[in-house]
Amino acid sequence: MEMIVFQTQEELDTYAAQLFINLVNEKPNAVLGLATGSTPIGIYDKIVESHKNDKVSFKDATSFNLDEYVGIAPENEQSYAHYMNKHLFSHIDMPAQNAHLPNGMAADMHEESARYDAMLEAQPVDIQLLGLGHNGHIGFNEPDVHLSGGTHAVKLKAETREANARFFASMDEVPEYAITMGVGSILKANTLLLVVRGADKAQIVKEALTGPITTSVPASLLQTHARVIVLLDREAGRML
Ligand code: GLP
């Protein structure tokens, strides 16, 4: 595991963005695993800036997002599809048909999960960006006695709904279910890029990276992967 602690957000964002830019410049048809939440926004801003300066083109690239809320349409501002369009897709030249998210409006979540897994199987992810939930979740893989390998629908924990309530008008509007890539699918990516910011995540960063490998901290399973890059700000790394 390679770990870098950054003094400024600017440096962290630039470093993370550069990993994606270098990959796509070396391998134009790269498959990018993308994430949402507040953590990646600065990274996407840097990628967009580089694209605008003609430093990178995504015209042959493909992307898969980790997760989506169930029952929230892509047009809805709270959907992860909307987030991705707003922060990245509408600013770069990746063809719309190459940008994949699980469909949270699918009538049958089992079918949708199988469809997503088949696409991931056909186009393995080169680099998967990951944020970290306060309870150690990655994507929406919540702590549990067992974890799912493949894409699946999941009931969100109260603490996850509370953490994400800031994006909604009220707690009642926060979806109860999401569809997420499984931990098994995440671990199939060639390289994992875990990015964590903030003092409120210092404890869970320590548990995930140095504690026992356990399904009660889903991110601890990252310790089993051969190529993990961890980028932290000073606050998130202060307990290591
Ligand atoms: C959500 C997402 C996760 C993300 C997490 C942390 O639950 N499903 O993929 O990592 O939030 O988000 P933030 O970066 O806003 O703290």
TrEMBL record:
Name the record gives this protein: Glucosamine-6-phosphate deaminase
Reaction catalysed by this enzyme: alpha-D-glucosamine 6-phosphate + H2O = beta-D-fructose 6-phosphate + NH4(+)
Pathway involvement of the protein, from the record: Amino-sugar metabolism; N-acetylneuraminate degradation; D-fructose 6-phosphate from N-acetylneuraminate: step 5/5
Any GO BP: glucosamine catabolic process
Organism of derivation: Paenibacillus endophyticus
Keyword list, A-Z: Carbohydrate metabolism, Hydrolase
Glucosamine/galactosamine-6-phosphate isomerase domain sequence ranges: 12-228
Functional note: Catalyzes the reversible isomerization-deamination of glucosamine 6-phosphate (GlcN6P) to form fructose 6-phosphate (Fru6P) and ammonium ion.
Protein's UniProt keywords contain ATP-binding: no
InterPro entries recorded: Glc/Gal-6P_isomerase, Glucosamine6P_isomerase, NagB/RpiA_transferase-like
One cellular component term from this protein's GO annotations in UniProt: cytoplasm
Spans traversing the lipid bilayer: none
Entry annotation: catalytic residues: 67, 135, 137, 142
ATP-binding keyword on record: no
